[in-house]
Amino acid sequence: MQVNLEGRKVLVTGGASGIGAAVVRAMLAEGADVVAADHDEKLLAELASETEALGGAFSPAHADLSTLTGCETAVGVALDILGGLDILVNNVGSGAVRTFDQLTDDEWLHTMNLNFMSYVRVSRAALPHLRASRNSPTIINNASDLARQPETQPIDYAASKAAVLAVTKGLARAEGPHIRVNAVAPGPIWTPFWTKPGGFADTLSELHGLEPMAAVEHEMRLRQLPLHRLGTPEEVANVMVFLASPLSSFVTGSVWGVDGGSVRALY
Protein backbone atom coordinates (compact mmCIF):
# COMPACT_ATOMS: atom_id res chain seq x y z
CA MET A 1 0.00 0.00 0.00
CA GLN A 2 1.30 3.44 -0.92
CA VAL A 3 0.60 5.98 1.82
CA ASN A 4 1.75 9.10 -0.04
CA LEU A 5 4.64 10.43 2.07
CA GLU A 6 6.80 11.38 -0.90
CA GLY A 7 8.69 14.60 -0.23
CA ARG A 8 7.44 14.94 3.33
CA LYS A 9 9.96 16.42 5.79
CA VAL A 10 10.40 14.26 8.89
CA LEU A 11 12.29 14.47 12.18
CA VAL A 12 12.60 11.29 14.27
CA THR A 13 14.13 11.56 17.74
CA GLY A 14 16.01 8.55 19.09
CA GLY A 15 16.21 7.46 15.47
CA ALA A 16 19.47 5.47 15.46
CA SER A 17 18.18 2.12 16.75
CA GLY A 18 15.14 0.09 17.74
CA ILE A 19 11.73 1.53 16.95
CA GLY A 20 13.23 4.84 15.88
CA ALA A 21 15.43 3.24 13.22
CA ALA A 22 12.49 1.16 11.98
CA VAL A 23 10.43 4.34 11.65
CA VAL A 24 13.27 6.02 9.73
CA ARG A 25 13.48 3.10 7.30
CA ALA A 26 9.71 2.94 6.82
CA MET A 27 9.40 6.69 6.19
CA LEU A 28 12.31 6.64 3.73
CA ALA A 29 10.77 3.68 1.89
CA GLU A 30 7.62 5.77 1.44
CA GLY A 31 9.64 8.58 -0.14
CA ALA A 32 9.94 10.95 2.84
CA ASP A 33 13.11 12.89 3.62
CA VAL A 34 14.17 12.07 7.18
CA VAL A 35 16.49 13.51 9.82
CA ALA A 36 17.22 11.14 12.72
CA ALA A 37 18.41 12.73 15.96
CA ASP A 38 20.34 10.59 18.42
CA HIS A 39 23.31 10.73 20.81
CA ASP A 40 24.96 7.66 19.22
CA GLU A 41 27.04 8.85 16.26
CA LYS A 42 28.23 5.33 15.40
CA LEU A 43 24.71 3.96 15.05
CA LEU A 44 23.64 7.03 13.06
CA ALA A 45 26.50 6.41 10.62
CA GLU A 46 25.54 2.75 10.29
CA LEU A 47 21.91 3.70 9.63
CA ALA A 48 22.99 6.20 6.97
CA SER A 49 24.88 3.44 5.18
CA GLU A 50 22.00 0.97 5.47
CA THR A 51 19.39 3.34 4.06
CA GLU A 52 21.24 4.64 0.99
CA ALA A 53 19.09 2.61 -1.41
CA LEU A 54 15.74 3.67 0.05
CA GLY A 55 13.49 6.25 -1.59
CA GLY A 56 13.92 9.36 0.54
CA ALA A 57 17.00 11.24 1.71
CA PHE A 58 18.44 10.45 5.16
CA SER A 59 20.46 12.80 7.35
CA PRO A 60 21.80 12.29 10.89
CA ALA A 61 21.67 14.84 13.71
CA HIS A 62 23.92 14.20 16.70
CA ALA A 63 22.20 15.50 19.85
CA ASP A 64 21.76 14.71 23.54
CA LEU A 65 17.99 14.79 23.76
CA SER A 66 18.00 14.65 27.56
CA THR A 67 18.97 18.35 27.54
CA LEU A 68 17.26 21.53 26.35
CA THR A 69 20.26 22.42 24.18
CA GLY A 70 20.25 18.98 22.56
CA CYS A 71 16.55 19.16 21.75
CA GLU A 72 16.90 22.60 20.19
CA THR A 73 19.96 21.43 18.26
CA ALA A 74 18.04 18.46 16.83
CA VAL A 75 15.25 20.68 15.52
CA GLY A 76 17.72 23.26 14.22
CA VAL A 77 19.70 20.66 12.26
CA ALA A 78 16.50 19.23 10.81
CA LEU A 79 15.33 22.66 9.66
CA ASP A 80 18.72 23.48 8.14
CA ILE A 81 18.69 20.23 6.17
CA LEU A 82 15.02 19.93 5.27
CA GLY A 83 14.03 23.59 5.01
CA GLY A 84 10.87 22.96 6.99
CA LEU A 85 9.01 20.25 8.88
CA ASP A 86 5.87 18.23 8.16
CA ILE A 87 6.13 15.24 10.50
CA LEU A 88 7.62 15.00 13.98
CA VAL A 89 8.09 11.59 15.59
CA ASN A 90 8.99 11.93 19.28
CA ASN A 91 10.48 8.54 19.97
CA VAL A 92 13.56 8.82 22.17
CA GLY A 93 13.41 7.06 25.51
CA SER A 94 15.05 4.64 27.91
CA GLY A 95 14.30 2.80 31.12
CA ALA A 96 15.55 0.26 33.62
CA VAL A 97 13.88 -2.09 36.08
CA ARG A 98 14.09 -0.47 39.52
CA THR A 99 11.72 -0.56 42.45
CA PHE A 100 10.13 2.62 43.76
CA ASP A 101 12.38 2.47 46.83
CA GLN A 102 15.51 2.12 44.71
CA LEU A 103 14.84 5.20 42.57
CA THR A 104 16.68 8.36 43.53
CA ASP A 105 15.63 11.91 42.69
CA ASP A 106 18.38 12.09 40.07
CA GLU A 107 17.11 8.91 38.40
CA TRP A 108 13.55 10.21 38.35
CA LEU A 109 14.74 13.48 36.81
CA HIS A 110 16.86 11.71 34.19
CA THR A 111 13.92 9.55 33.15
CA MET A 112 11.56 12.52 32.91
CA ASN A 113 14.10 14.65 31.05
CA LEU A 114 14.72 12.03 28.37
CA ASN A 115 11.34 10.30 28.08
CA PHE A 116 9.03 13.27 28.63
CA MET A 117 10.73 16.65 28.58
CA SER A 118 12.46 15.84 25.28
CA TYR A 119 8.97 15.52 23.75
CA VAL A 120 7.95 18.86 25.25
CA ARG A 121 11.14 20.62 24.19
CA VAL A 122 11.34 19.21 20.66
CA SER A 123 7.62 19.82 20.05
CA ARG A 124 7.90 23.39 21.33
CA ALA A 125 10.81 24.11 18.99
CA ALA A 126 9.14 22.37 16.04
CA LEU A 127 5.61 23.75 16.38
CA PRO A 128 6.14 27.10 14.60
CA HIS A 129 7.43 25.19 11.59
CA LEU A 130 4.71 22.54 11.70
CA ARG A 131 2.14 25.35 11.85
CA ALA A 132 3.70 26.81 8.71
CA SER A 133 3.53 23.48 6.86
CA ARG A 134 0.89 23.09 4.15
CA ASN A 135 1.54 19.37 3.84
CA SER A 136 -0.75 17.80 6.47
CA PRO A 137 1.54 18.31 9.47
CA THR A 138 1.42 15.79 12.27
CA ILE A 139 3.10 14.84 15.54
CA ILE A 140 3.40 11.21 16.61
CA ASN A 141 4.50 10.47 20.17
CA ASN A 142 5.89 7.09 21.18
CA ALA A 143 4.41 6.19 24.57
CA SER A 144 3.98 2.71 26.09
CA ASP A 145 1.36 0.24 27.22
CA LEU A 146 2.74 0.95 30.71
CA ALA A 147 1.34 4.48 30.44
CA ARG A 148 -2.17 3.00 30.52
CA GLN A 149 -1.53 -0.13 32.57
CA PRO A 150 1.45 0.47 34.90
CA GLU A 151 3.41 -2.36 36.44
CA THR A 152 5.31 -2.12 39.71
CA GLN A 153 8.54 -1.72 37.71
CA PRO A 154 9.75 0.41 35.96
CA ILE A 155 7.47 2.91 37.67
CA ASP A 156 9.43 6.02 36.62
CA TYR A 157 9.26 4.91 32.99
CA ALA A 158 5.50 4.35 33.24
CA ALA A 159 4.98 7.77 34.81
CA SER A 160 6.99 9.49 32.06
CA LYS A 161 4.95 7.77 29.38
CA ALA A 162 1.65 8.62 31.08
CA ALA A 163 2.76 12.26 30.94
CA VAL A 164 3.39 11.82 27.19
CA LEU A 165 -0.23 10.74 26.72
CA ALA A 166 -1.52 13.78 28.61
CA VAL A 167 0.51 16.13 26.40
CA THR A 168 -0.63 14.25 23.30
CA LYS A 169 -4.28 14.79 24.16
CA GLY A 170 -3.77 18.43 25.12
CA LEU A 171 -1.74 19.31 22.01
CA ALA A 172 -4.26 17.61 19.73
CA ARG A 173 -6.94 19.96 21.04
CA ALA A 174 -4.68 23.01 21.01
CA GLU A 175 -3.27 22.53 17.50
CA GLY A 176 -6.36 21.27 15.66
CA PRO A 177 -7.55 21.46 13.00
CA HIS A 178 -4.23 22.13 11.25
CA ILE A 179 -1.90 19.73 13.10
CA ARG A 180 -2.90 16.21 14.06
CA VAL A 181 -1.29 14.78 17.21
CA ASN A 182 -1.44 11.10 18.12
CA ALA A 183 0.41 8.57 20.25
CA VAL A 184 1.46 4.99 19.75
CA ALA A 185 1.62 2.84 22.87
CA PRO A 186 3.84 -0.19 22.20
CA GLY A 187 3.85 -3.18 24.46
CA PRO A 188 6.96 -5.33 24.84
CA ILE A 189 9.00 -4.86 21.65
CA TRP A 190 12.28 -6.66 20.92
CA THR A 191 14.61 -3.65 20.79
CA PRO A 192 17.96 -2.71 22.41
CA PHE A 193 15.84 -1.56 25.38
CA TRP A 194 15.54 -5.32 26.03
CA THR A 195 18.63 -6.81 24.41
CA LYS A 196 21.56 -4.51 25.24
CA PRO A 197 23.95 -5.47 28.07
CA GLY A 198 22.30 -4.25 31.25
CA GLY A 199 19.02 -3.82 29.35
CA PHE A 200 15.53 -4.95 30.31
CA ALA A 201 16.20 -8.65 29.60
CA ASP A 202 19.26 -8.61 31.87
CA THR A 203 17.47 -6.73 34.62
CA LEU A 204 14.50 -9.11 34.40
CA SER A 205 17.00 -11.95 34.64
CA GLU A 206 18.24 -10.55 37.93
CA LEU A 207 14.69 -9.86 39.12
CA HIS A 208 13.34 -13.37 38.39
CA GLY A 209 16.54 -15.36 38.91
CA LEU A 210 16.39 -16.82 35.38
CA GLU A 211 18.44 -16.65 32.18
CA PRO A 212 17.57 -13.49 30.17
CA MET A 213 15.35 -15.14 27.52
CA ALA A 214 13.64 -17.35 30.10
CA ALA A 215 13.09 -14.26 32.26
CA VAL A 216 11.48 -12.41 29.34
CA GLU A 217 9.19 -15.36 28.58
CA HIS A 218 8.29 -15.56 32.27
CA GLU A 219 7.46 -11.84 32.28
CA MET A 220 5.19 -12.28 29.23
CA ARG A 221 3.31 -15.05 31.03
CA LEU A 222 2.92 -12.81 34.08
CA ARG A 223 1.48 -10.09 31.82
CA GLN A 224 -0.84 -12.69 30.18
CA LEU A 225 0.03 -11.42 26.72
CA PRO A 226 -2.47 -12.92 24.23
CA LEU A 227 -0.01 -13.13 21.31
CA HIS A 228 2.61 -14.88 23.49
CA ARG A 229 5.57 -13.02 21.98
CA LEU A 230 7.38 -9.72 21.85
CA GLY A 231 6.61 -7.43 18.96
CA THR A 232 9.08 -6.12 16.40
CA PRO A 233 10.12 -2.50 15.79
CA GLU A 234 8.73 -2.78 12.26
CA GLU A 235 5.26 -3.58 13.61
CA VAL A 236 5.29 -0.32 15.57
CA ALA A 237 6.74 1.63 12.62
CA ASN A 238 3.90 0.45 10.37
CA VAL A 239 1.36 2.10 12.66
CA MET A 240 3.40 5.30 12.87
CA VAL A 241 3.59 5.51 9.07
CA PHE A 242 -0.20 5.13 8.92
CA LEU A 243 -0.66 7.91 11.48
CA ALA A 244 1.70 10.15 9.49
CA SER A 245 -0.17 9.56 6.26
CA PRO A 246 -3.37 10.94 4.68
CA LEU A 247 -4.96 7.54 5.39
CA SER A 248 -5.40 8.69 9.01
CA SER A 249 -6.68 12.17 8.15
CA PHE A 250 -9.59 11.98 10.65
CA VAL A 251 -7.45 10.63 13.50
CA THR A 252 -6.15 12.95 16.21
CA GLY A 253 -5.83 12.86 19.98
CA SER A 254 -5.79 9.06 19.85
CA VAL A 255 -3.62 6.39 21.46
CA TRP A 256 -2.85 3.39 19.26
CA GLY A 257 -1.87 0.26 21.15
CA VAL A 258 0.71 -1.94 19.41
CA ASP A 259 0.99 -4.22 22.39
CA GLY A 260 0.03 -7.78 21.51
CA GLY A 261 -3.15 -7.33 23.56
CA SER A 262 -1.41 -6.46 26.82
CA VAL A 263 -3.83 -3.64 27.72
CA ARG A 264 -7.11 -5.10 28.86
CA ALA A 265 -9.12 -1.92 29.58
CA LEU A 266 -11.91 -0.66 27.28
CA TYR A 267 -10.10 2.44 25.98
Distance between the termini: 28 Å
- The CATH homologous superfamily of the largest domain is named NAD(P)-binding Rossmann-like Domain
Instruction: Write down how many β-strands occur, each being a DSSP E stretch of 2 or more residues.
Output: 7
Helix fraction, binned, reads 40-55%
Low-confidence stretches: none
Shape: globular
Enumerate the strands of the largest sheet in spatial order, edge to edge or round the barrel: 3-2-1-4-5-6-7
Largest sheet: 7 strands, parallel
Order of helices and strands: EHEHEHEHEHEHHHHE
Question: What is the domain tally?
Answer: 2
Secondary structure category: alpha/beta
* Residue fraction in strands: 5-15%
Please name the CATH topology of the largest domain: Rossmann fold
Q: Mean pLDDT, as a whole number? A: 92
CATH second-level architecture of the largest domain:
3-Layer(aba) Sandwich
**SS element count, helices:** 9
**CATH class descriptor name of the largest domain:** Alpha Beta
Radius of gyration: 18 Å
